Amino acid sequence: MSDTKFDPAFTISDEVALRELFGPTHDLASQKVIRSLDRHARDFISRAPFLCLGTQDMNGRADVSPRGDQKGFVQILDDRTLAIPDRPGNNRLDSLSNIIANPAVGLLFIVPGYDDTLRINGRATLVTDPQLLESMSVGGRAPRIAIVVTVTEVFMHCAKAFRRSHLWDPAHLQDRSEMPSLINIVLDQTTGAPDDAEEMRKLDANLEEDYRRTLY
Questions:
Q1: How far is CA 17 from the centre of its chain?
Q2: Is residue 201 part of a domain?
Q3: Per-residue pLDDT averaged across 174-193, rounded?
Q4: Has this prediction a pTM greater than 0.90?
Q5: Number of Cβ atoms within 10 Å of the Cβ of 117
Q6: Quick one: 153 and 205 in the same domain?
Q7: Where in the sequence is the domain holding 50, given as residue range(s)?
């Protein structure tokens, strides 16, 4: 299987050509970027139980990782510093390894029911300070590491993407059972999923039990 190719005449490879396709930026859109966390950004972060963390390695290979917990799980340390607990995962450590190689990060904060989002760009450091980690404990379990972000850009993002996607509209919720389970998909993509339905149900149950035991 080969990669799809496009005629170079129909590809955009420089910013001048890109901007010729669009109208000028609205003045307010240009001015809205601020350099620290004002009261509105702080309020939004305190309400957000979910964010997406964008990182890149030293070669520019990009990665986006979801991060979620109870609302307000991201700590605001000062007007230009955030701390994100790194909860247990699969130990691939993609985001953390990328931060070591390239500390530039992008954050997208999402609040259920809100169509607008908060975007923050900055530089990240991996921190193991015991006092900070203990302050992030849940049920007596502290994270092993925190992602501390020095903020360089803060701005609100408009609602168009969420409006177009109907993300929070119950009428647009999809039935998860229409696709195989997560473990079924991963096995299909790797070693092969079992044909036996009962065995597959046991694997699904084991994954749910693992979620219960290792959430924190």
A1: 30
A2: yes
A3: 96
A4: yes
A5: 21
A6: no
A7: 8-165
